[in-house]
Amino acid sequence: MTSGNKNSGIEVRDLSYQPGSAKHPILSDITYSFAEGHMTALLGPNGSGKTTLLRHFLSQIKCPEGAVLIDGKDTLDYAPKERSRKIAWVPQSSSGESAFTVEEVVLMARYPFKNTWEGDSEEDIRIARDAMQTVGILDLKNRNFTSLSGGERQRALIARALAQTTPWILLDEPTSNLDIKHQIGILEVLKKRVQEEGLSVIVVMHDFNMVERFCDRAILLKNGEVAAKGLVREVLTPELLLSVYEVGFDIIEKEGRRVFFPKNVAEPDMTEATEK
């Protein structure tokens, strides 16, 4: 549930990032306040800085002091377990679970709430199995994680995030390996928890129709800078999408919801390359 604290949420202040090997900044002067109780889409072309931004929230990349605040506290000042009780993370892929069953992978989410060497309680197991049931993988709980399909692995990682019972969940393209049924199912679960339980979600997505259907806010990045931010209808406009993605879109209204149709992309001019 939302806390009502005026400092609650994730606040980004003038965040820039340029690793030593990069010729240009990956992030440039990002400023945005992610308020609690919303499902916010993080949008932009490949390489625009979306994943890098989320990794700063988790201190996987060290931030400048005061650049990222979680509930008014610098993310650098959080101990790992303390931060893990605030934010759950669903990466695009994960490779550290090869020796574990699906249930063991999901139960890893309970680690931030345990003392050292403390085992899984009945409550931990209940929470984990509820999460697996929610995403439709309870029947896979005894399978080795590496034996799963890409989509099943993705659902297991989402179940782990749900079992972490944090007020925030960050997801990096969580539906990329899922069929359409499970894409809709997972996003419906997240939206319902946002609406009914005050969960806060930041999700990297590329499908504007899914964003329109499930998200209420959006931030659009281009070349590491904020191109637009606000309500989804304010961000997903033909003009902004054309300027950021260099692709035109036709947008029609249907049953109170907009539907996005990309226009044809011009074929690249290969004449000069052929002549060479």
Question: In percent terms, what proportion of residues is strand?
Answer: 15-25%
What is the CATH C level class of the largest domain, in words? Alpha Beta
Please identify which CATH superfamily of the largest domain we are dealing with.
Answer: P-loop containing nucleotide triphosphate hydrolases
N-to-C order of helices and strands = EEEHEEHEHHHEHEHEEHHEEH
Total number of strands? 12
Query: Span from first to last CA?
Result: 62 Å
Q: What is the mean predicted local confidence, pLDDT?
A: 91
Please give the largest β-sheet.
6 strands, mixed
CATH topology of the largest domain: Rossmann fold
Given the C-alpha coordinates, what overall shape results?
globular
CATH architecture annotation name of the largest domain: 3-Layer(aba) Sandwich
Taking pLDDT < 50 over at least 5 consecutive residues as the criterion, the unreliable ranges are 272-276
Describe the structure.
With 276 residues, the protein is α/β, with parallel strands linked by helices. The chain has two domains: 168 residues, Rossmann fold, CATH 3.40.50.300; 72 residues, no CATH class. It has a six-stranded mixed sheet, with helices on both faces. Helix 4 crosses helix 5.
Helix-strand blueprint:
Elements: E1 10-17, E2 27-34, E3 39-43, H1 50-57, E4 68-70, E5 73-74, H2 80-84, E6 87-90, H3 102-107, H4 122-135, H5 150-163, E7 168-172, H6 180-197, E8 200-204, H7 208-214, E9 217-222, E10 225-231, H8 232-235, H9 238-245, E11 249-254, E12 257-262, H10 271-275
Parallel strand pairs: 3-8, 3-9, 6-7, 7-8
Antiparallel strand pairs: 1-2, 1-4, 4-5, 9-10, 11-12
